[in-house]
Every structure is written in structure tokens, then in C-alpha cells.
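Support reply, case 0932

Customer input (verbatim):
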Amino acid sequence: WGVIARILCALLCLLLSPWGETLAAGGGGRTYIVGFAQDTLANDFRAAQVRQLAEAFARRPQVNFVFSDGGGSTAKQISDIEEFIARRVDLLIVSPRDANALVPAIERAHA
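Our regenerated output:
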């Protein structure tokens, strides 16, 4: 439940933020990119996370949901995060394999 609770908490914070209000109001004519750097899609639970978010964001035409499969590799997941940063995603969601190893990449996302 820990991971699910954190994801739900993050989504709730998003929806209650000014960004969430804009999104709920139709996005103000703008398309938002939401990126999800997933650890692996080989795990049913983690694949379900991606599938459920994809279904939820599909109801919002102003959101382009993209995700990556780290394939169980921390190095690949870091590379995926760097790619999302380069794409300038509006919201980055990360389900880490090794949270400590991802700290520098996450800090770059916040810079």
C-alpha cells in the first residue's frame, strides 16, 4: 500500500494545485506532457500503475501521457528521466528501482 498511497497522494496534490485547476478547466488551450519513468513493466503491479494512469489521462485530451520502461535497470531509468527532462515534460512521475540513485536526476528535473 505504501507505493499506491504515495501515487494517490501525488495525484491528489497535483489536482489541488494551480496546475490541476488549469487542467480541470480544460487546460487553457494548452497541451500538457506528463511523463512516467517506470522501473519495469515486467512486474504486473508496476504495469498496472502505468495502465491506470494512461486510462485516467486519456479522459483529458489536453494531456499527452508518455511513459518509459526502465527494464529493471537503474541506469536505464536515469536515462529515461534525463530524456523526459530534455522533452520538458510538465509533470514527471517516477516509480524508482533505487530511490537514492535517482536523486541527482530528480534534482536536475527540479532545477
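We compared this against your earlier run and they match. Two observations from our side: The CA atoms of residues 7 and 93 lie 9 Å apart. The mean pLDDT is 83. Please reopen the case if you see a mismatch on your end.
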